[in-house]
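Bug: token stream looks shifted between consecutive jobs. Job 1:
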Amino acid sequence: MQPGPLTRANLKTPKAAAIAGMVFFVLLIGVFWLLRTSIPADPQESGSWLQSSSGAVALALNLMPFAGIAFLWFIGVLRDRLGEKEDRFFATVFFGSGVLFVAMLFTAAAIVGAILIAFTMQPQELIGSSTFHFARAAAYSLVNVYMIKMASVFMITTSTVAIYTGIAPRWLAILGFALALILLFGRFYISWSFLVFPLWVFLLSACILHDSIRKASGQPAKGGA
């Protein structure tokens, strides 16, 4: 009596990972677009956006937790799909970099949220103050230095696991290595380079969903092609 439920669970697991990855892609792209069009890229700006774009920034911050939850769900279900194939070393780096990415994402969001709250309390005193510049520089460094690096490490380890286990096409793993190098070394030269991370997660999710549909229909999967 047990093989039936177990089979259904195995078929649902890849679909859950794919859906979570796609939700993460949509939410993070929306959050990133709202922030990039509302907050100047220059970390030394005076903070004039607080008067004109605080509503859009607040919306982005409210969407941020859902993007993080979707990403954690994606990691969990992807690890479940790996099962016994999961290597301990790569599993540790894969899981650790993913959790650190979400932690830094939330920390940066909390800093920006604190700026918004402080602005509503003392709008004139905050703009151009040393407190604002410190918080702004902290959020900028956290996102553009540390969080980006964790995203690239996640892509590298996931691509390595994909090559050895065949959970995703080889071309996608190679693409993951190339895009990870862009995040590692080209972040300060290409302002929108961070978009490659959610885009790569979306492609990985699409491949997982395609494989799960093929398995459900009884066709052979092509994950290792």
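Job 2, same session, no restart:
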Amino acid sequence: MRLNIAIAIATAGRRELLADTIGFLARQSRPAQELLVCPARYDDLDPACLDGFPCPTRIICGPIGSSTQRNALLDVTDADVIVFFDDDFLPAEDYLRELECLFCEQPGVVVATGDVLADGILGPGLSYQDGVKVLAGAGPNAQPPSLTPTFNGYGCNMAVRMAPVKQHHIRFDEHLPLYAWLEDVDFSRQLAPHGDIVKATRLRGVHLGTKRSGRSPGKRLGYSQVANRIYIMRKGNISASQAFEGNLRNVAANLLRSLRPEPWVDRRGRLLGNLLALWDWVRGRVDPERILRF
């Protein structure tokens, strides 16, 4: 069975890196049927980087924000499966081939996320060259097929079966603005009643975790870390204990590390945003969209 697979990238503020990523995507041993790119701003994409790509490409216009941009990508595709890659995610060359096998052999899977061999989001970030080296060093895909149930897809590489998305009108929540912290969790949990969410060991890649971003630094991101969890909890897509534990973890990390912050993280800005969100929660005014007024 041959699936129609679309690659979708919502991007902001990473013009040069995006060009590198698109060049790397051209190496897929099983090409996609379509590459869709939604830049936050006109200058976030050099159209020349799409020249010669081994499948049709489209540039999609959408309002700034991860959720709104991803919804714009959902709206234009007729694919059987759409795979969302971050603009700093490098998939192994067999990623789409393995993805097709998975979705053909496992009709109950609605969301699949891969094995991230290295994740720069946990540190200062990886360069493009670092990511390429990690994948080269990993060698051929020798892992036996293995699917593990997981709570949500990881937004940097998240493949979605489109039939239930269309049937149940599932969308990324646009009340989570800009970076849209945890929009992948919320979207996955909307799909959870309609099938399985899995992590697949044979879907491999590297997330560069590039820190230069056009979305939400410092105070904005810190506010979102707390406010978005509370909002998603109230929707019923995470539990109260998940919201409490996640918020406690973020606030504690920002508090402790604000004493000696890493050069690549605005810890004090994040802590201020955390405290503002907690204060708004106490007053009954917490709102993820407040960051648009900062």
